[in-house]
Amino acid sequence: MADARPFHWEYTPPPVAREIFRVEGGRALRGTVPISGAKNAALKMMAAATLTGERCRLTNVPEIEDVRVMADTLRDLGVVVDHPAPNTYEIASGDVDWLFVPLEAAAKMRSSFILLGPILARFGRVIMSNPGGDRIGRRPVDLHVDAMRALGAEIDYRNGYYFAKAPGRLRGGLVEFPFVTVMGTENAMLAATLAEGHTVIRPAAREPEIDDLMVMLRAMGAEVERTAPDVIEVEGRRRLRGADHRVMPDRIEAGTFVVAAAITGGEVAVEGVECDHLGAFLDVVTAMGVSVACGRDRIEVRGAPAGSGAYRATDVTTAPYPGFATDLQPPTGVLLSQATGTSRIDETIYEDRLEWLSGLAKMGASVRVLDHHRAEIDGPAHLTGREMEIGDLRAGASLILAALAADGTSVIHGAHHVQRGYENIERKFLDLGARIERLPEESVTPA
After folding, report:
1. Residue 447: how many CB atoms within 10 A of its CB?
2. Considering the domain boundaries, does residue 14 fall inside one?
3. Range of the domain at 89
4. Are residues 336 and 359 in the same domain?
5. Phi/psi at 415 (nearest 5 deg)?
6. Rounded to two decimals, what is the model's pTM?
7. pLDDT digit string (tens) for 202-245?
8. 38 alpha-carbon distance from chain centroid
9. pLDDT value of residue 75
């Protein structure tokens, strides 16, 4: 393996183009909104394309910053990544000879660590930086590393980098996680497709994005199946072929727009979404009193008049799929602020994901954060527009929702966080009748 010293350990990220959202609240949203491809599926499929030297073509890929970062990271490795049309990427991974994922990529996006499994399995070695990502608490990658070791990899950690190699081929085996891990499951599954022999992964995460990734892998010639709800088994192949695949819709974006309709007292049809993927979330919003009707590929939402106090307080506990998604906890928290009574949030996945509630409180919500995992929200609250700062992707979308329901104008700094995961979110809100614009930071007059 290459020595660590030539690489730069002290990385200062380049300046991000600072932008703000300016939102005028108090307007009920009406119309139809199309849902983009799933971020959490597309990124893993781009990584899966490195398992073969043949071309893989992905459609319905969201035009978001995280996808652009992944494409640039792959290009830096020597992978050919073309973007021939909107929402379409073509990836061909030939003889990649720069098997190093630097801190620059990892600092921008935690999902860069998904490259560990496929690159190690295909090329036999890789150097990976510790990943970055949203500031929502510890998200250790030890489980990914342990999974690769269970498949025969040798991995050392030095100076912030993982140096991984696979003598000969990876070997199939039992990958047993201490608890459910989504990206850990994906990394193990990708690596196992080219390992020698049979691999059993348990407990395997059950997210629909993983099953969509399995559909793509089977199209590539992999032998992978879910043999029980929490067990995935893989029979390794020596090589895989190219494939075409359409990315599934983004259930987190869909849930965000369901809340947008409800919080503003609007009527919105959310199109291109599978209701089955949102079961636990839709159970909660229905229990609150939101009118939701599911069709074959759409959700029709009718919200109660703003300020009516018609919604009922409800408790929310996040959990791995098919439980309530942690990424939908912040949007739902905004809706809970409009429910009559005391609602409780139990965030079981990430210990710092309740920090966003300080922004909601600043707008007038009655919030009590009990500890890193639990909070209470009293409602209904009268929200007022404020100037706020976005801390992470899902919190940013939630502050936009709160601003849409608030009286007056809100200025939300850190728009780049939202662009990481939502395709042209302001355009979609504008088409529903919202008053929202994205502007350079310097356009804001200091208070």
Report:
1. 5
2. no
3. 39-246
4. yes
5. -60, -25
6. 0.92
7. 999 999 999 999 999 999 999 999 999 999 999 999 999 999 99
8. 8
9. 92
